[in-house]
Automatic annotation (TrEMBL):
Record-level GO cellular component terms: membrane
Localization, UniProt: Membrane
Transmembrane spans: 12-30, 57-78, 90-108, 115-136, 148-168, 175-199, 241-260
Annotated protein name in UniProt: Transmembrane protein 45B
InterPro entries cross-referenced by the UniProt entry: DUF716
Family stated for the protein in its record: Belongs to the TMEM45 family.
Membrane topology per record: Multi-pass membrane protein
Coiled coil feature spans: none
This protein's UniProt keywords: Membrane, Transmembrane, Transmembrane helix
Record flagged with keyword Electron transport: no
Main location per the UniProt record: membrane
Amino acid sequence: MGTFVGHLIPGFAVALLGLWHILNMAQAFFHKGPDNFKARFSYPLNIPFLNLRNLDLVLILSLSILAIITQVLDFPIVKLEFRLDNFEHATMFLHLLVYSGYALFAELTQTAESLYGVIAVLASSVFGQELFLLHFHSTDHVGIEGQYHWLLQLIVLVSFLSAITVTLSPTSFPASLVLAVSVVFQGLWFINMGFMLWVPKLVPNGCALHLGLPAHHGEPTVVCASKDADSRARALANLQFSWILSTVLVLTGILCLKLASSKGTTGKRSAEYQKLQNGSGGDLGLTLSIRSFKPDHSLGV
């Protein structure tokens, strides 16, 4: 993961996965209604004449295996690379591999509904282990790089807490939405880190991308020339964090508004019709009650 491509590809995949969850989850909520909504940790892709129902889990499983291989093997010379930070990155994908493999097996055996609790726990463990390994990372991320990784931990923490909440309360739409939004945010933050920490032209003013520093195993590292430059770079990272989050929230709000308006017309008509029926039934019952107590003049009452 310590390359531009190593941040770009996983980031794009994670952001796309989160967006897929937001779209399907919002559709399910506004279509079924709050009473019948239940969160899922994977959503099927239904395409006529193509068996791609579990495509999301297959892609997660495949990318996890590929990521583990690239972390433990040194390319282009194929040999084991015993670097602690690489094994930490591979372990993050290992938990993702366990979750996706188990969830895919449950879907194929049609036991996903009954095994929801187990799948949810495994999904939560992915974020929990990611947070644990990021926080106690063997590589000493200092300076601007440390700021970006510290902000990443905040995003993963939100994902972890919201995943636990969804596990305990699968009918909670807000918790499910926070989880999906945090996944999109995490993917976009990966991409942003790749550009800001690995593209020399995008490095903040007063900082530079240095190669071959022994403290960083010879990998490119952003180093700021002064304390003021370091402070400006950290402030820029904080602003980017806020800007990306705002963008994700605005797009999520627009998507939900569009889905709610498209489903709201039908739902509103159904509710009004049901209300009209209930009202008519109540009036009819009242009329029958009054008539039942009406005096019968033919009996001289």
